[in-house]
Amino acid sequence: MRKRDVGLVAGLALLLVIIVPLGACFGDVKIPVSQVWEAFFNRKSSLNGEIVWEYRLPRILVGLFVGANLAVSGALLQAVTQNPLAAPNVIGMTAGASLFAVLALLIIPHFPVSGLLFATFFGALFAGLCVYAFAWKKGMDKGRFALSGIAFDALFQAVITGILVFATKGIDAAVIWLAGSLWGRTWEHVFLIAPWSVVGLGLAYLCYRRMNVLQLHDDVAASLGMRVQAARFLIFLIAVGLCGSAVAVSGPIGFVGLVIPHLARLLTRADYQRLIPVSALLGAILMISADTAGRTIAAPIEIPVGILTAFIGAPYFLFLLRRAKL
């Protein structure tokens, strides 16, 4: 990477390091930054230390991983479809993961988090394969992929609504989860999502050359020796893993995967070697910032982070639609 890009990544990483302790300061109980730093290194230093270590730090780390996963998942889907409007919540992957999670929570209201992770992964995979199958026409057609995704997203959302309308018991856990929130997240959630994030983000970065080549015409990519459809499917599977793991621990959170890749392109070139780390850092920063704002704007009432990201992302989505003249 060029010096400018290295400086950008380093600057965003520094900003993230600053935002993490600041996020731990705010909530029902405001804690000075000095005590937050002390709690990071000595959890039993005080009552505030216990609050930071047991409640706020796990929540912040979950937000970090969720934001990075959703942002990079969106960047990967935009590379696969070559469509700037592609994102996990737009093409049905988030809705598919949510549908499987709702079914699991209705069957077992206190469904274990580890089981929910696999339910959302297979839900995202099922949704993605449905979209992929309908988009296949002598190869994956990029336009059909985006349109099929929008159709399946509407279908899965309708099924979720119908289930909630007709369900007689176990609905409370599902409704709370569907709000999309980081409330009550613990170290268990951190340890569950962390391996998926490390492996998924690492694989995404290793595929940056393939994604760069995919931005060329398919014939050009094939002439360079790339198996185009195999490369698309591999990148798609990585996006599924990142999306499913994020939805499992936070519920459905929209627009992060849509907004962040475009913001990353404004800060750096469209080279995916730069775009992947910048998107991951920006996604983490947005998620932690939105969650911190949700805890403080109307304290002691908490605004779910999914609501705030929708307020940010929906206008931007409309802006993209207008620019694309769809």
Automatic annotation (TrEMBL):
Pfam families: FecCD
InterPro entries: ABC_BtuC-like, ABC_transptr_permease_BtuC
Keywords recorded for this protein, A-Z: Cell membrane, Membrane, Transmembrane, Transmembrane helix, Transport
Membrane topology: Multi-pass membrane protein
Gene3D superfamilies: ABC transporter involved in vitamin B12 uptake, BtuC
Domain of life: Bacteria
One Gene Ontology term of the molecular function aspect: transmembrane transporter activity
GO cellular component terms given for this protein: plasma membrane
Example GO BP: siderophore-iron import into cell
Subcellular location: Cell membrane
Family membership noted in the UniProt record: Belongs to the binding-protein-dependent transport system permease family. FecCD subfamily.
PANTHER family xref list: FE(3+) DICITRATE TRANSPORT SYSTEM PERMEASE PROTEIN FECD-RELATED (PTHR30472:SF37), FERRIC ENTEROBACTIN TRANSPORT SYSTEM PERMEASE PROTEIN (PTHR30472)
Name by which UniProt lists this protein: Ferrichrome ABC transporter permease
Native species: Geobacillus thermocatenulatus
